[in-house]
User: Fold these one by one.
Assistant:
Number 1:
Amino acid sequence: MALTAETPRIVADPMVPRVGRIRKRVRELSDVWTLTVEMDEPFAFAPGQFNMLTAFGVGEAAISISGDPARPGEGLIHTIRDVGPVSHALSHLEPGDYIGVRGPYGAGWPVEVAEHCDVVILAGGLGLAPLRPLIYEVLSGRKKYGKVALLFGARTPTDLLFRPELEQWRRRLDVDIHVTVDTSTEDWYGNVGVVTTLVPRAAFDPQHTIAYVCGPEIMMRFGAAALRDKGVPDEAMYLSMERNMKCGIGLCGHCQIGTVFVCRDGPVFRNDKLRPLMSVKEL
Amino acid sequence: MEGLERIVKEHPFFAGMKDEYTNLIAGCAKNVRFEAGQFVFHEGEPADQFYLLRSGRVALQISAPERVLTIQTVGESEIVGASWLVPPYRWGMDAKALELTRAISMDAACLRGKCEDDHSLGYELMKRFMPILIQRLQASRLQILDVYGAHS
Amino acid sequence: MATDHVSVTIEKQGLQSLIDILAKRGYRVVGPTLRDQAIVYDDIARVDELPAGWTDEQDGGTYRLQRRDDGALFGYTVGPHSWKRFLHPPIQQLWKAARSADAATVEATPAEPERFALFGVRACELHAIAIQDKVFLHGPYVDSHYKARRDNAFIVAVNCGKAGGTCFCVSMNTGPRVSNGYDLALTELVEGGKHRFVVEAGSDKGRDVLAGLPKQPASSGDLDAAKKVTEKTAASMGRSMKADDVRELLARNLEHKRWDEVAERCLSCANCTMVCPTCFCVSVEEASDLAGVESSRSRRWDSCFTMDYSYVHGGSVRSTTRARYRQWMTHKLSTWWDQFGTSGCVGCGRCITWCPVGIDITEEVAAIRSSEPQ
């Protein structure tokens, strides 16, 4: 008897997106929007994870989740800067429009390691968006942590992301919030200076601190250096990396930095692992 | 006088300095306060003081026609003024209090004189000034990079 | 089981029977054939489509076909193609989407039920397939298209009777004799006017197919001759690379001046990545109709030598050729170990042969090595 053709075993294809629908679109800054996406099923994620979002007919981009992991009923929330064709199309989706979602992917911010420690959250520019789920989680379990400081820098006062929420957080007495801008005009009464200048101003015990850093790569490099100068070891710092991603699941090769895939091994890395990779130019 | 000595000694800028020196330095010190909006000094004026902030915030600014550019703001525990260290001892920018600011003002000529008399004191002061100046230089470089701009 | 290792010999016509049986069982048989002055992998139906009596001469940046003085069917080494073009094709549609005002559907492109019989797979290529298996099948996410093709493939391996000018499988411990991962393995014996093949089965599928072939038991003399074939090949490798510590060697030489030197020669043309049997990188692209109602996503082979490859908002992470060559070579020989627990290089030599300027990975390793105190 001849061997018959075996039917291929079909495995769910991780490259195929689920369909969601835009529930809400809010303009955060001149070129930044926050989209709330309605999914058919509850969408669980961890702070710092990202999704691959598809604007049908245009393409796909890796976008971090900026919503509250404890409130899945709110919908799936992403904050997107309009910088390229895909992010432009994504950020211009209107309520009722369809969007493709794959994820959540990647290793996010480890929150549990910060229990009983002081917490420093160092954000630059749009880097506050991937940190927001972590901030929600830390604030909702505030008693588990020592001092909590949020240090946030942006380009100008009009580039400060989530300003209303920053004001809300500032009203809490249990969070030390410092905000600075790189350049300003006279109508700004807040701090001026790069975000690294905030590190010496925050109150925390460097030996018992976990730091979470997100922003442009140069900002993170100098931010980590400022934390190190203050005595925070690399082993206690977590940074979130951005690289070109086509698959999000370690199969396309694009996001490699030396030994790691940012999508699979990150995007959040502990700095003792990341720093040797970052110290090699163009790795 | 004893109060000033204590205030000088407790300011983070002088952390770890020998009592002998802080007592000496306190002789050049006085307490000052600036209301919100009040200028601490103006660009081009003689740099005859330097300030150790105790509370409040001060903006370092450069005025150009029709706009005022704030380079940096400094706050509690930080210092304002480095031009008193190098000739011709004139301020390179404006300093304006953004809120009620209390500070220790140091008489520059007095301080320079004490440093000339005792170079060890001068060296102790330099060791405290240089890191701050380097940090501020570095911060200015980062500002120039415009890390949040189009090429980040 | 002793029967697992029973070897037989078949005649040249027996190979035709093998192709016929595979075709009858629903396999699309692909194997080496002559095209565009090269030996490439394509559909074959008849034994005489194999490059009988041809061989190839390979060196850095050089590939030339030549006649042999016998009628050997496998008397050459590997050409510009590798089997990844069947298991991990250059273009693969992933899904199609359709949108209307009140519905949007995404339909996964089915993993093709196409069943390939890969005919004439070399030892280095079996290792390359095993390496891609690690990437696509053994990580946290499985590539469904690769899996469907891989699960259904039938592999007819060939032990190499000739070493190419750019071959270094002995250094990489990947050949020239196949060890596992095949359904059937052939060793071609051309001697004293006789042309036969020693055949070994490596799987139940292989044994089942073998049962239907006209064959003779292999004598100990046949087996001895088959062993000598690969021994001779192993002794005549065109290239070599000291590979036992190359992972560490490259990892500690990321700022070596040799990267600048190779960058002066490298054209960033991406040939090495296209011909490499383990390179797996892809990009994705979107196609849509004019009305924007239907769209589809495909993936396409990509290369770490392009500027777009590492583009993030603001520019490319690896904007220099130096960085891109370093990425490719250190990935193959060093960081692949960190990522997949194996080397990413099998010593097939394609990247050397098909480099338009003849950059030689073995020479680059040797140059970096020689600069270190021994």
Number 2:
Amino acid sequence: MDQPVLLETNGLIATLTINRPNARNAMSIEILDAMHKAIDELAATSTASVLILTGAGKAFCAGMDLKAVLIELSGDASVGEELLTNLAKLTLKIRNLHQIVVASVNGAAIGGGCGLTCVCDVTVSHKDATLGFPEVDLGICPAVIAPWVVKKLGAGKARKAMLMGGVMSGIEAFDIGLVDHLAEDRNGLDELTHTLASRLATGGPKALSATKKLLNELDGSLEETMVLKGAKLSASVLATPEAQKALASRLKR
Amino acid sequence: MIQVEYQDQIAIVSLNRPDKRNALVPAMLEQLDRELKDCAHKARAVVLVGKGKSFCAGFDLKMCADDPGGETMRSLLSGLSTVVRTMRAMEIPVVLGVHGAAVAGGCALLGGADIVVADAQAKLGYPVVKIGVSPAVSAAFMMASIAAGPVRTRLLDTELISGRDALRIGLVHEVVEQPADLRKRTTEIAQTLTRKPGLGIQATKAWLNEITQPMTNNAQRGLEASLALTGSPEEQERLAKLWK
């Protein structure tokens, strides 16, 4: 079977690719575990100063694996909380990396997948990409990623985006500050990502990581409490009959 | 002074003092607070809009000038702070629509809303320092919503900005081209919200409130800072001048 994530390093730039294209790179326990391992490795041994996070195939990351959290299918109500806690810890780990992390959003970045982009330092995408937080449409609460979305967009815009649900185009995402650099189309994204990553990598590695560390301190990124509490909250909403019903009907479509 | 209509599962709450551009008086804020608390149990989303030519011109300054003891100003500041906190604490989402103008206390109401729509040419701002009043009462909720730089500029500068510029700094989340489209658009947004499963929306709003609490906890301090200046000679002098 294919590896769940691919980690490559080319000089000062490392690339981590979520590799589950058939499921639009949705985050299963397997994917999350593999991401944890890759991030641990980057933190411990890598001399890269920039990490690009992207997805294999058409999507960046479709969010949580909905099949895994549907109790009717798994028969196990604890999977939701396990997955969400795992995601919460992963976001903290990515934020704490000394590398500058660039999300290269090649396609759909939905829910938790869109939340991952907010954990990264810089987000690059293209006009035809799809981003957003449709959790409320399914009766669930994006509590794990909400602290990151608030930090990225400011609380007012985050409130609007997360309460309204739905998805937006790359252009709209760029307008509200969810995306920092926008390519014309998918074809232009790789070059834009490479240009940006190369430019970031020209910085002194110590200066880059010290700056990132300070920014993390200033915006409370090192406060784990809210993100971990978010996992519990999100799991409790996820387990309600209302949410399970909405998820089941989404999966049948 | 406040009108409430129900449409499906939405409560449409209107500031209804159109001949005074919906200028706020203490009884109006008390009524608004009561109605908002009341409709939280009856509806799944609230729309707050204004009747007549503009959303809200702020406090009724004539009434303040006629009360040199400052009691009216104090009631208005406290009432405004209460309403904004009520809007935020409500379990259901609040959609606010600005047409024409949202000035001073009228603009402060935006602080409690979850989603704000304005017409592109609407005028928004907090030009209260020129009458010797501090907009500190609005600072906590504004800083819990948009970046600190624009907050500073908007609260210290008496300039009014357009709906389109307000969109750029995040004070407004969406603009409509025509003031006449505002009621339709805010109602549409509220309808979209009521069609989603309710628990997810409630939990998400409550969680965002908790995330922003370190900032909104300063609301009382802000109110006290504004109250501390009421009745000052500077304020009295400047208010009186408005009517000469």
